[in-house]
Specification:
This protein is α/β, with parallel strands linked by helices. It has one domain: Purple Acid Phosphatase, chain A, domain 2. Helices cover 19% and strands 25% of the residues. The protein has a seven-stranded mixed beta sheet, with helices on one face. A five-stranded mixed beta sheet has the order 6-5-2-15-16, covered by helices on one side. Strand 9, helix 5 and strand 10 form a beta-alpha-beta unit. The radius of gyration is 17 Å and the shape is globular. Bound molecules: fe (ii) ion. Keywords: Hydrolase, Iron, Metal-binding. It comes from Pseudohongiella acticola. Pfam families: Metallophos (PF00149).
Length: 275
């Protein structure tokens, strides 16, 4: 586990979430008309202007749209402008092998990070060739072991669980089969430990902050296109690209907010029937 020990009694830990960047090998590549490298770079500029001293950054999957090494390189090059380390997990559009085998980014493939008295648990839910997610036995064992460690590690008190796929059904009819298929296995483990303060994900490209199953869940918008909630068939939302920040307090409280680009025009193909 990577450990970044900082006393977070004086001020909370500032964690940044970036998700669903969907980058291409060609920096001019567009998803439903939107140039994803351009909107991602603008979101990173926004983070740089608003977040002078972040402690850590998590990137929760769909880093690339085409899974090419060049697209991952674009991501890392852009992230280098931010003054904090990042770790990432794959989404359904990523290729885990490419992410793991790129030597320069091995440091980003972390299963667990300790920040102050918090542990950030990163779970890989990707299934090669599929849109939906699944937690393998390995990932479930990693989660269980990480949560169990709080009982024997005096430096740990709180846990934040991060994954790409939504473990709670999506908010639109077309989303019903694309989430985490074995979400109950995740929820069963989370219910056995009292250090879990939040579950963080992306994948459905929208803002959510709600309580369910005695847990708090956060979904974060993409740095590119947004999906309209509450509809039956696929539809784009014209809200701007965004990121999320979290303040992780030493007593386990979480403050969090989504920040969107201002003065940005969503130039997207609104007739698209899917992505
Ligand atoms: Fe995505």
């Amino acid at each position: 586990m990577q450990t970044q020990k900082r006393d977070n009694q004086a001020r909370p830990l500032r964690l940044i979430q970036i998700t669903d960047t969907h980058l291409y090998r060609d920096p001019a590549g567009a998803l439903l008309g939107l140039k994803t490298q351009d909107s991602f770079a603008k979101v990173v500029d926004l983070i740089a202007s608003q977040q002078p001293d972040p402690d850590w950054i998590i990137a929760t999957g769909d880093i690339t749209q085409d899974s090419t090494p060049q697209a991952y390189q674009h991501f890392a090059d852009t992230m280098a402008r931010l003054p904090a380390p990042f770790c990432w997990i794959p989404g359904n559009h990523d290729n885990r092998e490419t992410m793991v085998s790129t030597p320069a980014f091995k440091a980003a493939f972390l299963e667990r990070v300790q920040l102050g008295n918090w542990q950030i648990i990163m779970l890989d839910t990707s299934v090669p060739g599929e849109v939906h997610g699944l937690l393998s036995e390995h990932e479930l064992a990693h989660l269980e072991k990480s949560l169990a460690s709080v009982a024997t590690d005096d430096s740990l008190q709180h846990s934040l669980v991060c994954l790409h796929h939504n473990p709670i059904p999506g908010t639109a009819g077309w989303m019903q089969d694309i989430g985490l298929h074995n979400a109950q296995a995740l929820l069963d483990i989370l219910a056995r430990y009292d250090s879990v303060r939040g579950v963080v994900y992306g994948h459905i490209h929208q803002t959510l902050d709600f309580e369910a199953h005695n847990l708090r869940f956060f979904c974060t918008p993409s740095t590119c296109i947004q999906f309209k909630p509450g509809v039956e068939d696929f539809a784009l939302d014209l809200r701007n690209p965004a990121y999320r920040w979290f303040d992780l307090h030493a007593d386990g409280r979480i403050d969090s907010q989504v920040e969107r680009l201002q003065a940005y025009t969503m130039d997207v193909d609104q007739s698209a029937g899917g992505y």
